[in-house]
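Q: Please design a sequence for this.
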């Protein structure tokens, strides 16, 4: 069961800075950075390529640079989790969890008791189950790799929605004692267009040896398996849309 609790810009942690361009924001506006682009003609092939890359980034990249939210969005409890959608958490739907859902998460995570690797495999299953519940609560199934054409559409999710939702789930699992081999870290972002990559964010886990792992669910439709890989590997990816 899901309850819509509003569509507004949440309070964000910090500000993102990207090389080579200036951001202009109204106070409290954390939805999209305004980008000031030099309007002078570009006479070099390098300039042309940069313009093409910028356009591609706006079409397929995340529509926000905020990936760690405060307040109600991250306050997962055994009875409910907030599910973000519509890009940059424009829509917030409360996913109510009962005994059936809580028991299912416990069973999924029980398979991960043996080792950190087993727990990461269980987390992948838990993310898939959570996204199925979220889609049912919202009433819309998220498409894979949502782009700017789906901005502000309820149920469609950019990587900010996806990483925020995944982190909320991980916090729920941790609060219930279902994460035995990992701790939940702050979300991490990569890419600033000029490095050949559009901005992209992921949720993060840390294992007992201190290694961090990306948990990235943006590439698949609702319920699909997330990419879980060492964070340093995830940070190297994404050039020209590479998964």
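A: Design:
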């Amino acid at each position: 069961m899901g309850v819509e609790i509003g569509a507004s810009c949440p309070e964000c942690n910090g500000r993102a800075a990207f090389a080579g361009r200036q951001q202009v924001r109204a106070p409290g506006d954390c939805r999209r950075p305004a980008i000031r682009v030099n309007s002078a003609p570009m006479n070099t092939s390098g300039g042309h390529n940069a313009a093409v890359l910028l356009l591609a980034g706006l079409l397929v990249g995340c529509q926000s640079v905020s990936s760690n939210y405060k307040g109600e969005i991250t306050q997962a409890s055994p009875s409910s989790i907030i599910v973000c959608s519509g890009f940059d958490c424009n829509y917030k739907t409360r996913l109510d969890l009962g005994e059936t859902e809580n028991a299912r998460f416990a069973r999924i995570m029980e398979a991960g008791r043996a080792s950190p690797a087993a727990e990461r495999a269980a987390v992948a299953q838990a993310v898939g189950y959570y996204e199925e519940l979220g889609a049912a609560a919202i009433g819309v199934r998220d498409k894979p790799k949502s782009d700017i054409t789906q901005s502000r559409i309820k149920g469609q999710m950019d990587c900010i929605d996806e990483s925020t939702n995944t982190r909320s789930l991980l916090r729920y699992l941790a609060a219930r004692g279902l994460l035995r081999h990992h701790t939940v870290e702050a979300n991490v972002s990569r890419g600033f267009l000029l490095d050949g990559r559009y901005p992209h964010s992921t949720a993060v886990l840390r294992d007992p040896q201190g290694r961090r792992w990306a948990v990235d669910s943006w590439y698949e439709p609702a319920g699909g398996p997330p990419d879980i890989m060492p964070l340093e590997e995830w940070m190297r990816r994404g050039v020209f849309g590479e998964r």
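Q: Thanks. Anything notable?
A: The chain has one domain: 65-241. Confidence is low (pLDDT under 50) at residues 7-46, 50-59.
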